[in-house]
Amino acid sequence: MSITIQIPAALRPQADGQASLQLEGGTVREALGELKSRYPELGGRLFKSDNEVNRFINFYLNDEDIRFLDSLETKLKSGDELAIVPAIAGG
Amino acid sequence: MTTLTADHSTDRYHRQMLLPFVGEAGQAKLLKSTALVVGCGALGTVIVNMLARAGVGRLVVVDRDFVELSNLQRQVLFDEDDVNGLVPKAEAARAKIARINSQVQVIPLIQDLNHTNIEQVALEGDYGPVDIIIDGVDNFETRFIVNDTAVKHGIPYIYGGAVGTVGMCYAVLPHTPAGDKPWEIAGRATPCLRCIFEQAPPPGMNPTCDTAGVLGPVVSIVSNYESIEAMKVLLGRYESVNPNLVSVDCWENQLRQLKVGRAYDVGECTCCKKRNFEWLDGVYSSSTTTLCGRDAVQLTLAPGESKLNLVQIADRLKAHGQVKLNPFMLQATVSDNAEAFELTLFKDGRAIVKGTKQPTRARAVYAKFIGS
After folding, report:
1. A19, A85, A91 member nearest B39 (Cβ)
2. Which of the ends of chain B has fewer CB neighbours closer than 10 A, N or C?
3. Regarding the domain with residue range B9-266, which homologous superfamily does it belong to in the CATH classification?
4. A-contacting residues of B 286-315, CB under 8 Å?
5. Which helix (H) or strand (E) holds A30?
6. Which domain holds residue A66?
7. Given B160, B256, B292, which is nearest A63 (Cβ)?
8. Domain range annotation of chain B
């Protein structure tokens, strides 16, 4: 499945400056795994361990929080959009 | 001859009272409302400006900092006189709003808002319990303390955050055990901030205004979004409050409405579901804070310690470098091991040590020149 991943401004330096990119993956976990293998430094910012993502970063599939779908096992279909959304602290 | 005065509320608020959901009754509600604005920097100045002009009757404005030149690019209530006078931000906001709308009252609190004092400020001030808390904060520790307070006491809370060209806004209309708040009766309660972000980003993991910079219009967009959500809440128009987490990237031309509504029902939130107020209970509290946007650390002494005698300290520090003193604070340039620091002391014992991001270094400088 080809999906679009939206990279937040804070993490674009770890993704060659791209705001979004196309990836293949059947589940959110597979897509993020693919992202991690392409951009290991970015992966390091997202994942706390091999299996767990950091809890101050959220992932929204077509604007729905994946924690309330099937989390990392949420299935993807072609054309889906996965947004990485970290908490914004400044003010 | 009669003198024209600006105190006819129908004239002043006419343009917003034309809107059917404001009208005379809505305007009366705004004028009777008390809002707590936490932080009076980039977000906070816009919020205070908008709500004061809209006639929100009392604005309790808490800020621990003073106005600096680098603030003027985006902090709309301040000017060069405030910079030259080292005026605390909350006081500068009060003075400016007094010239804009003398019908409303700004209550400036020049202090750090933390887990030891937030309930007193939100519930027990002379101004009575606040109707809403609005976020002009620059760190997640304070936000989670605010969120805990809002949920524990059933006070609406508007979150906003901005950095670089991106920002977020979200309205917490908290669930309460009795379920009898007007927004709950209207079926419009929302998940709390910790339902959405379970943990605070650790220092260094997230960009700050310090590392990433920030554009003025971005903070204005986010804080105005916060202001309109606050007005909806104060007007009792809960059905119009946005239930989504709004996320905006002004450079990439993206505006997202992230759906978070199921977080309360499906999630197991420590705060609003289990009613375990860890941040307010001080489980994660720290007495040092690295300040957003500045090469500086804030030190907070344990509550209960006596107020500092700034005049006496100023006399002592004159031997070490330049000292400036006003009724609110003292600022001194000192040098330690050939490094220069700017030391700012507030009457309540708080200090901001500029010239380092290291809490231990800041503590050492404080101990050397002020005492431990």
Report:
1. A91
2. N
3. NAD(P)-binding Rossmann-like Domain (3.40.50.720)
4. 292-293
5. helix A28-38
6. 2-86
7. B256
8. 9-266, 288-369
Contacts of B297 (CB under 8 A, 6+ apart): B288, B289, B290, B291, B352, B353, B356, B357, B358, B359, B361, B362
For chains A and B, CB pairs below 8 A equal 119
Place of tokens 């401004």: A9
The total of structural domains in chain A comes to 1
**Who's near A69: CB < 8 A, 6+ residues apart?**
A61
Which residues in chain B come in under a pLDDT of 50? 1-4, 303-305
Amino acid at B230: A
Beta bridge partners of B298: B289, B352
Residue A10 lies in a domain: yes
- Which residue in chain B has the smallest CA separation from A61? B258
Q: What is this model's ipTM? A: 0.92
Angle between helices B42-54 and B89-100 (to 10 degrees): 30
CATH of the domain at A43: 3.10.20.30
At the topology level of CATH, where does B288-369 sit? TATA-Binding Protein (3.30.310)
Catalytic status, residue B269: no
In a domain, A34, yes or no: yes
* Marked catalytic residue, from B169, B195, B209, B271: B209
pLDDT in tens, B211-264: 678 999 999 999 999 999 999 999 999 999 999 999 999 999 999 999 999 999
Q: Is residue A75 part of a domain?
A: yes
- Indicate whether A55 belongs to any domain: yes
B206 to A88: CB separation less than 8 angstroms, yes or no: yes
